[in-house]
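Anyone up for a design puzzle?
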């Protein structure tokens, strides 16, 4: 790799990292505003016009709060937990194609940090590692509520990763690749995978709610039962890391769903825009379209949180093991049958 290409990749990494943090920061503001809208309230309106500076005030509050480590906590692991949670949340975006190739002068720039041929497996690996941050933090706190929250998070993650993986198998039968870039390119125009895999998308989306610990699957926190769950003993920026990790995970999950099922950066009329507007503008429009889809999913995450009540834990497990897994297996069989019939009669 040439030095120029290395610098471009480094800049792309920094830009994606900055965007992830900004989206996470202002997702807290959007969460409050969406909740206020659904509950016929105003929401934050003191810090800046329409409360737009509220996330900055919250961030300053997190930084200035006293750093407390409980006496009986495992000090090293108590710090490792939130650090691991935020790190795994940030690295998941490395394989997501944020737009088509962009031409600047004579140089072609990929709007993707890296295109590996097992991109989906990478995403699953990162998701699996993310729960370790919660488990370590909950165990190191030496608090029974934190430990129960960590155990719930581990059980929930294991249960719903199976359904999520099975839902992806049906998609791979159609696309024939594990590369997110190739999957995005196959959905050119309006050939989005959601039209061919609506059940697979529904299962994947439900599992994404569970994997990100969002309501109605927020049993690891569950304030009414566990005080604050796995981060009960945390304060200052260590608590901030856990909260940021949740919103970054929501952002990355939305990007993955948009890429796998909703065409990613593809939109109707892409070729016309590239031909009549310019090859440099078309990729920028693609990036805007992808982020519009991502923000629509984030809004849906928030809408569900303030609409549907939290499940009981037995209901959570019943849905994961007895409903979603059989549905995902049935979807695989149905996809295989339809694909075979189409191939036979084509």
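Challenge accepted. My sequence:
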């Amino acid at each position: 790799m040439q030095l120029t290409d290395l610098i471009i990749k480094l800049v792309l990494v920094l830009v994606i990292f900055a965007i992830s943090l900004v989206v996470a920061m202002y997702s807290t503001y959007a969460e409050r505003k969406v909740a206020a809208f659904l509950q016929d309230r105003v929401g934050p309106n003191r810090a800046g016009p329409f409360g737009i500076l509220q996330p900055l005030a919250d961030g300053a509050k997190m930084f200035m709060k006293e750093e407390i480590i409980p006496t009986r906590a495992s000090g090293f692991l108590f710090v490792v937990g939130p650090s691991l949670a935020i790190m795994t949340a940030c690295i998941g975006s490395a394989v997501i194609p944020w737009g088509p190739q962009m031409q600047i002068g004579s140089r072609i720039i990929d709007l993707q940090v890296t295109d590996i041929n097992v991109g989906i497996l990478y995403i699953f690996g990162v998701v699996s590692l993310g729960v370790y941050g919660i488990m370590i933090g909950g165990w190191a706190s030496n608090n029974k509520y934190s430990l129960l929250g960590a155990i719930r998070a581990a059980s929930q993650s294991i249960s719903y990763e199976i359904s999520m993986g099975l839902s992806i198998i049906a998609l791979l039968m159609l696309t024939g690749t594990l590369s997110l870039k190739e999957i995005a390119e196959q959905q050119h125009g309006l050939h989005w995978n959601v039209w061919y895999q609506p059940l697979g998308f529904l299962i994947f989306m439900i599992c994404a709610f569970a994997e990100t610990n969002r309501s109605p699957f927020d049993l690891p926190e569950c304030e009414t039962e566990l005080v604050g769950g796995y981060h009960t003993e945390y304060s200052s920026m260590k608590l901030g890391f856990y909260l940021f990790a949740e919103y970054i995970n929501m952002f990355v999950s939305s990007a993955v769903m948009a890429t796998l099922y909703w065409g990613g950066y593809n939109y109707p009329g892409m070729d016309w825009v590239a031909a009549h507007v310019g090859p440099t503008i078309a990729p920028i429009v693609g990036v805007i379209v992808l982020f519009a889809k991502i923000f629509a999913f984030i809004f849906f995450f928030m809408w569900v949180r303030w609409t549907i009540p939290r499940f009981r834990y037995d209901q959570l497990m019943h849905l994961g093991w007895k409903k979603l897994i059989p549905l995902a297996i049935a979807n695989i069989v149905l996809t295989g049958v339809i694909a075979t019939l189409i191939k036979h009669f084509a």
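A detail worth pointing out: The chain has a mean pLDDT of 87.
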